[in-house]
Amino acid sequence: MQIYLPIAEISVNAFLLLGLGGLVGILSGMFGVGGGFLMTPFLFFIGIPPAVAVATGANQIVASSISGVIAHFRRKTVDLKMGSVLLAGGLVGAALGVLLFNYLKQMGQVELLVQLFYVVFLGVIGALMFVESLNAIRRMSRPGTVRKRRQHNWVHSLPFKMKFRTSGLYISAIPPLLVGLAVGILAAIMGVGGGFIMVPAMIYMLGMPTKVVVGTSLYQIIFVTAFTTLLHATTNYTVDMVLAVFLLVGGVVGAQIGTRIGVRMKAEQLRVLLALMVLGVCGKLALDLLLMPSELYSLAAAGQ
Amino acid sequence: MMLARLFALYLLAALPLHAEEVVAGLSQARVSITANFAGSEILVFGAVKREAPIPEDAPLDVIITVAGPSDAVIVRRKARRFGIWVNTDAVEIDTAPSFYAVSSTAPLVDILSDTEDLRHKISIPRAIRAIGNAGTVDDTEEFNKALMRIRTRSGLYQLHPGTIELTEETLFRGGVALPSNLTVGDYTTRIFLVRGGEVIDAYETTLPVNKVGLERWIYTLAHEKPLIYGILSLIIAIVAGWGASTVFRYIRG
């Protein structure tokens, strides 16, 4: 069944969109990530214009994050204070990101920017995750090794200290603001929630306990991506409601299936699989940049 | 009396020019883009009206063109910079139709002279106006060719020689397949009667292409009230996210 997308202005198969939403949903349910970093490249592959893919991706993440954060609120694993500080940085970052996005769109370099961001971040995160989970699997076969304790690093010597009770932290507000800012810029440019960058940053840079990390990250992602959606909708008119609805329906069902598959697998195996998948997407995008394209020319409407 | 004589003179003068006239119609008065729009087939049919016997000097041919709304287009070219492929040169083409299809009874080169093509802008390269295109590159012709190549590949520019059926030099019919990735606006359908390389009569009609129903509503809202549209998108997302988590909690018990 073909469905015409009013904003993307192309006609695509509705089952392809449902399947895509479902597939990303399964993966996000299995691995506990938002899935935006997979959804947006997949949308590029099926021919959705990059600007529409990025803006609509942000809207879709709002829905999946809300669906996820409710469970975390019930378990009281959301640090509202930390989330709000991250959010303050995130909103500024999102505004900067959209400005940068629009500026580069005029120069005709927006595709390059989005692709470069994807290659760099998927490459780095994928490689780190792959090495880390292989080490974890190796550690399991050699029991008795004790994990290193968290160190007292440069983060703890900055001013403006605040008490974050839920996380049990007493640190400066500057690092969370900066982390929020960086993730906000990424969210606007890449059309992702930034969970796959936010989560490692919260654990390794801010030293937050793992159990509150996912809920807090989801909590602030809702607001940053909602803000990004509004900015894209009012400045670029690129949020496609019809596309978002189809992805959402598929994604919601997929996430439930994914959660069930995830329960039956070992955490380290899951992480290796996720790392391989992230590296795969990264490799495909990198090849597009490195190999000579079959068509050197591209068209754009003038005066945009 | 004087006026009537002048009129008769005019008729006599005009007669050889319009010895053959085209009468035509389309199978549809408009094209509506609905939620399940997957392209549309337009049938163009008509007849040649004449009061004298069929001229014997050269065979009659028919050309049908369908053109979408024209716009300026920026064509960009990639080049290798620092090891990766980046957009570098750009050329702005003043006006190019968003859709252009040419159907004819025989290949255009055999039936249409260059001067007539230039005058009526019939063939695809003539339909694109590239004169005086701004840019810093010297090989602008390559950019024009790229525009035609890309749009031909995505089905937006079509050349169908020999697809019009012409019976007894009088009745003709031909079809144009509109793809699903159409730009909305007024599409101009032109029908040319050609004899010995010269256009002897032409007929022009407009075919409006519009989004209708939900598609139109969404598109209009997104462009005219973007803030409300953005908020509405968010409400849908919030309700869907909250609803999904509630529904699945009930299913799990």
Largest sheet of chain A: 2 strands, antiparallel
Instruction: Encode the helix/strand succession of chain B as letters.
Output: HEEEEEEEHHHHEEEEEHH
Percent helix of chain A, as a range, is over 70%
Unreliable residue runs of chain B: 11-16
Structural class of chain A: mainly alpha
Kindly report the average pLDDT value of chain A.
79
Q: How many helices of chain A?
A: 10
Contiguous runs where pLDDT drops below 50 for at least 5 residues of chain A: 145-149
How many strand segments of chain B? Answer: 12
Strand content of chain B: 35-45%
Beta-strand segment tally of chain A: 5
Indicate the overall shape of chain B.
Answer: extended
Biggest β-sheet: strands ordered side by side in the sheet of chain A = 1-2
Explain how this protein is built:
The complex is a heterodimer of chains A (304) and B (253). Chain A is mainly α. Helix content of chain A is 70%, strand content 7%. Chain A has a two-stranded antiparallel ribbon. Chain A has a two-stranded antiparallel ribbon with strand order 3-4. In chain A, strand 3 and strand 4 (169-172) form a beta hairpin. The model of chain A is unreliable at 145-149 (pLDDT under 50). Chain B is of the alpha+beta class. Helices cover 32% and strands 40% of the residues of chain B. Chain B is built from 7 helices and 12 strands. Chain B has helices at 2-14, 108-111, 114-120, 124-127, 140-153, 213-224, 226-252; strands spanning 20-26, 31-33, 40-50, 60-67, 70-81, 84-97, 100-104, 157-161, 165-167, 171-178, 185-195, 198-211. In chain B, strands 2-12-11-4-7-8 form a 6-stranded mixed β-sheet. In chain B, helix 6 (213-224) crosses helix 7 (226-252). Chains A and B meet through strand 1, helix 3, helix 5, helix 8 and helix 9 of A and strand 5, strand 6, helix 5, helix 6 and helix 7 of B.
